[in-house]
Write a structure and sequence with these properties.
The protein is α+β, with helices and mostly antiparallel strands and 319 residues long. Helices cover 21% and strands 27% of the residues. The protein has helices at residues 77-87, 121-129, 210-214, 241-258, 283-303, 314-317, and strands at 11-18, 23-40, 47-48, 61-68, 92-93, 98-99, 104-106, 148-149, 159-160, 163-169, 175-181, 187-189, 196-198, 230-237, 259-260, 270-279. The chain is globular. InterPro entries: ArgJ-like_dom_sf, Peptidase_S58_DmpA.
Length: 319
């Protein structure tokens, strides 16, 4: 076991990024069609094919999920994932070839790097080609390449974040994993110690509590269109579509434990939940463990990030 989401049977991860433009995308490929649910809690989401995942709707499985930077422009990356899957004969059989089912979500990273360069069809295709069962690369990679946190004291006082992953394995064979790109407006803190790991900085460069900053204003100081945390949780359980959605709902608790504030009016926080296997477990257990591994993945996202775009990271300030 490598301690990342690729521990989950049936899950492969691929990244592609432009490190000069500071943007990228991450692809979660299923080795076989898998049940998927989604829960969107932020009020400014950028998503693709999420209506399809409603338990009321017909198609119950997906073939991949695309997480991307680039704001709404980054939704183009999923088309490249579809191209890769079609070339390999993977998708929903419709009698005239296949239609790959690839939901996705994006985060806003246009404020760093070169905003004119965004994840596109070619980058999505490249990420799909790169997908493997190897331990997940973390930090300034894939959808986390341009991710930042702590924007309530002005973007110049923000910090670099990134992409993180974690997993847990039980004795009964259940494996639960998470992957997340953390682009929160607020700060990330360790729930064990309440210590801020990355967040807004004051004029002396000291990290401060995001909500304390908000208290100074009679209006919301959250910069519009600069945020959103996007994630996938997965397990080798057997779940229905509605159960997968419930797991996604419960997984949001992992964000609430580690990011403050979360689910704001200017966030698009979105979590997909995938079930790849046949292990039978309580939905409540799977949801609880999904929140646990997602919280761990959020911490990894800031700990593994490197300074970039003129912004320091947790690791650079900890030296």
């Amino acid at each position: 076991m490598n301690g990342t989401i690729t521990d989950v049977p049936g899950i492969k991860i691929g990244h592609a990024q432009n490190t000069d433009a500071l943007t990228g995308c991450s692809v979660i490929l299923m080795e076989k069609p898998s049940v998927c649910g989604v829960d969107v809690r932020g009020s400014a989401p950028g998503t693709r094919e999420t209506d399809l995942l409603d338990p009321m709707n017909m198609v119950s499985v997906v073939h991949a999920i695309c997480l991307s930077g680039g704001s709404a422009y980054g939704l183009d990356a999923a088309a490249g994932v579809m191209q890769y899957l079609e070339e390999n004969g993977i998708g929903l059989e419709v009698g005239f070839g296949v239609v790959p089912i690839v939901p996705g979500a994006v985060l806003f990273d246009l404020a760093v790097g070169d905003h004119r360069i965004r994840p596109d069809r070619q980058m999505g295709y490249e990420a799909a080609v790169n997908a493997s069962k190897d331990p997940v690369q973390q930090g300034n990679v894939g959808a986390g390449t341009g991710a930042t946190v702590g924007k309530l004291n002005g973007f110049s006082n923000a910090m670099k974040s990134g992409l993180g992953s974690a997993s847990i394995t039980l004795e009964n064979g259940l494996v639960v994993g998470a992957i997340v790109a953390v682009n929160a407006v607020g700060h990330v803190f360790d729930p064990q110690t309440d210590r801020i790991l990355a967040g807004p900085r004051d004029e002396q460069g000291t990290m401060v509590d995001s909500v304390e900053v908000m208290k100074r204003y009679s209006f919301s100081p959250i910069p519009p269109g600069t945020n959103t945390t996007i994630a996938v949780v997965a397990s080798n359980a057997v779940l229905t579509k509605s159960e997968a959605k419930k797991v996604a709902q419960m997984a949001h608790n992992g964000l609430a434990r580690t990011i403050r504030p979360i689910h704001t009016m200017n966030d698009g926080d979105t979590i997909f939940s995938v079930a790849t296997g046949d292990v039978k477990c309580s939905v409540d257990l799977i949801g609880s463990l999904s929140a646990d591994v997602l919280a761990a993945a959020v911490l990894q996202a800031v700990k593994q990030a490197k300074a970039a775009g003129g912004l320091p990271s947790h690791s650079s300030l900890s030296k």
